[in-house]
Design goal:
- Helices cover about 40% and strands about 15% of the residues.
- The chain has about 325 residues and is an alpha/beta fold.
- It has a domain of about 220 residues: 3-Layer(aba) Sandwich (Rossmann fold).
- The strands form four sheets. It has a seven-stranded parallel sheet with strand order 3-2-1-4-5-6-11, with helices on both faces. It has a two-stranded parallel sheet with strand order 7-10.
- β5, α5 and β6 form a beta-alpha-beta unit.
- The protein is globular.
- The N and C termini lie far apart (about 40 Å).
- Bound molecules: uridine-5'-diphosphate.
Length: about 325
């Protein structure tokens, strides 16, 4: 940890859900953090605790348009993209550009400064997977023009561009594919399954299950995810490696709804809504590579993470 002091990190998307937890961790480690965000889905509230901390700076910039005015950077984390299906379908062009032009600009910054570069890619790179669990070697089953393509395909392009910069300019790039992550700071209105179900349960609204609820997801608690990001960036000798980061604990959406209803003691009914187009049927990470090379695995089961997240949203509602 001592060796990381005074090293400078750029966190693009640093005011978002995962990015802001990452900024917290980097400041705790003693790095200088430049948090860059255009605040379309991130918020100042997420980084409120960091303003005024020594070593923290915030730049309200759009990485797909603006130059980041820094000449001395050691680490670049690219977490700048809407990531919830609701958000990226509301901002399809911004999403596609953050992951294409935005990735290009950040890779150019890495090239100019010699920084190590970590791309936050996604389990959506696997699309609606035809194999389970998904290993990094799986090429995926992705629709290039469907409602999710602005996200899936631009993340896949971001991976391609990162590898071009690795091979052409010898950059130290690393890629993580993030599986469903939840916890405090995910916007209540974000539209994702955990935030929706908890907030519906807490307000007595019906829990909206899309389709029959037989589709599965594997849910990772935020502190586990960020610990994996830390290892993926700072473990030496991982140039060019790609890792799944997520919790292999797989659950059907309907079971999740029932679990959240039980944990909140809510009287809310479950309602079944039409299935979403191109909604992946199953998703579960194979994390054996992360276990082997990062010595990382999630520590927080849903039985612990969900109650913590419920407590967070209860507190938010009280403070309003
Ligand atoms: N989902 C649901 N009800 C909701 C929100 C989501 O049934 O209110 C389902 C959605 O159809 C998907 C899963 O939960 O199958 C996870 O959706 P989310 O938006 O959290 O993330 P995704 O994994 O699709 O990116």
């Amino acid at each position: 940890m001592g060796s990381s002091s005074h090293r400078q990190a750029v966190v693009a998307g640093g005011a978002g859900f995962i990015g802001s937890h990452l900024c917290d961790l980097l400041i705790r480690k003693g790095l200088q953090v430049i948090c860059v965000d255009n605040l379309i889905t991130g918020s100042r509230q997420n980084i409120a605790g960091l303003f005024g901390r020594p070593g923290f700076r915030f730049l309200n910039l759009d990485i797909s348009r603006d130059i980041i005015p820094e000449s001395s950077v050691d680490y670049i984390f690219h977490f700048a993209s809407p990531a919830s299906p609701l958000d990226y379908q509301n901002y399809p062009e911004e999403t596609a550009l953050a992951n294409s032009l935005g990735t290009l600009r950040l890779l150019q910054l890495a090239r100019a400064t010699g920084a190590r570069f970590l791309l936050a890619s996604t389990s959506e790179a696997y699309g609606d997977p035809l194999q389970s669990p998904q290993a990094e070697t799986y090429w995926g089953n992705v629709n290039s023009f469907g409602p999710r393509s602005c996200y899936d395909e631009s993340k896949r392009f971001a991976e391609t561009l990162s590898y071009i910069y690795l091979h052409k300019y010898d950059l130290d790039i690393r890629i993580i594919r993030i599986f469903n992550t939840y916890g405090p700071r995910m916007r209540a209105s974000d539209g994702r399954v955990v935030s929706n179900f908890i907030n519906q349960a807490l307000t007595g609204a019906p829990l909206t299950v899309y389709g029959r609820g037989s589709q599965t997801r594997s849910l990772c608690y935020i502190s586990d995810l960020v610990a994996g990001v830390d290892r993926a960036m700072f473990t030496p000798g991982l140039r060019g490696e790609i890792f799944n980061l997520g919790n292999p604990e797989e659950t059907a959406v309907l079971d999740l709804a029932k679990k959240i209803k039980g944990l909140t003691g809510s009287e809310s009914p479950l309602v079944f809504k039409p299935p979403l187009p191109d909604d992946p049927h199953q998703r579960r990470p194979d994390i054996s590579k992360a276990r082997r090379l990062l010595h990382w695995q999630p520590q927080i089961p849903a039985a612990v993470g969900l109650p913590r997240t419920i407590a967070h949203y209860r507190n938010l509602a009280k403070s309003r």
